[in-house]
Every structure is written in structure tokens, then in C-alpha cells.
Amino acid sequence: MSCRVDVLINNASALWWQDVVDTPMNKYDLITSINSRGTFALTKACLPHMNKNGFGRVINMSPPIELALPNFAGHTAYNISKYGMSMVALGVAAEYQGKGITGNTVWPATVVESYASINFKLGEEKDWRKATILADCVIGIVSEPDTFTGNMLIDDTYLKQYRGFTDEDLKIYRCDPDHEPPRLLDQTKSRDKQGERAEIRTMAKRGDVKDLDQDLASSSGFSRPKSRL
């Protein structure tokens, strides 16, 4: 039986936001195994099928590679694992250019409502967007021509720049209709905002869920969640 794979979305990921000295090697191995290694393995398995059919779309949920120092505070191991995912997409783009197969990444500008944002108490509903913003980005990227490849995209920027969305249109993704979520996860902000973002990211330490209370006690980068969380 032949196998046809047209689209691969590498979305599964493990979170670990701690300083280097507070990162056990087993945690480092876990997040790199799931994030960068898992993405590489699945992509490697799917590419022969895509190449056979002359069509493929590899989309990785990972951030643009931004090497400014503030982005690494408290996120060194995590960034290694997530940037590895981005490098897989860039590798696909380079190796399959002109062959009908594209590689791109997409990353949320804001915290997105998910079990991760709930279980790790990453703020309140007003701080989040709905996951449908990423789903709509994926639909758009899949529909782009073969020449649309090698891009590391931010979700709302992509929708505005390539799909014609306005700021008003983006309001449909708010979890709280009356509040615009802060764009805390956009690492591509101007350099003059680097210090402000570094402070936020450093204060938002997260590791094991069982140690969440301890992390919350030493973090204030995200507002405390509502009692229902």
C-alpha cells in the first residue's frame, strides 16, 4: 500500500523555562528529544513520500531564530530545542527548493490558550489568544505557492502581511473580547524593547508542573490566574 503525506505539522513540544544551572540533564534530554529530535525524525520520515509526489508542506511550531542575548535568559535549554525545530524547517526549504516541498515555521506573538497555558498558569484569559489563530495560519501557509518557503513567521504578522487581516480582524482571536493580549512571545521586537522583554521572560520561570507553586513564588512576569485555574 502506498503512503501519501502532503502536510507535516510539528506541533508537539515540551516546555522548560529555567536557568542553565537549574536545568537537570534529564530535563535537557527530554525537551531536546521531543522538540528538535522529534521534529527531525518525523520530517525525515515524511520527506521521501512528499518527494515522490512532488508536493509537501513542512510547518514547525517554533520561533524565529533571534540571537539577541536577552532572549536566552532563563530559556537557554528551551531555545536550543526550539531553534532546532526552526533549523529543520530551514533545512527542508534549502534542500527541496524548486521541488514542490516547502519548509516554514510559525510562532505565536501572544500566549495561546492551551493545556500548557492553563496548567502552567501563564496569566489569565485576557492574556491569551485562541488556538484558532495558529490553525488559520497553517491553512494559509499550506495554501501558499511553492516559492513561499524558508520563512520564520509570527502568527499575527503573517495574517496581516500575507492574508490581508487588519487589527480589527485579529480581535476574533481574543479569549477575552475586551482585552488585547500582550505580545510577550514575539522575540523579533525592536532592539529597544529587548530589555523589557528579557525582564518579563526571566521572571516567567516554569519547569515541572509539580513545582509550579515554587516557580510562581519566584516569578511575576505573568499576572496571577483566575481562581478557576
- Provide the structure class: alpha/beta
Q: What's the β-strand tally?
A: 6
Beta-strand content estimate:
5-15%
Q: What is the CA-CA span between the terminal residues? A: 47 Å
CATH architecture designation: 3-Layer(aba) Sandwich
The residue fraction in helices comes out at 40-55%
What string gives the helices and strands in order?
EHEHEEHEHEHHHH
Question: What report would you give on this structure?
Answer:
- By secondary structure, this protein is of the alpha/beta class.
- It has a single domain (7-217), classed as NAD(P)-binding Rossmann-like Domain (Rossmann fold, 3-Layer(aba) Sandwich).
- It is built from eight helices and six strands.
- A four-stranded parallel β-sheet has the order 1-2-3-6, sandwiched between helices.
- Strand 2 (56-60), helix 2 (76-95) and strand 3 form a beta-alpha-beta unit.
- The longest helix is centred in the N-terminal third of the chain and has 29 residues, at 25-53.
- The protein is globular and about 50 Å long.
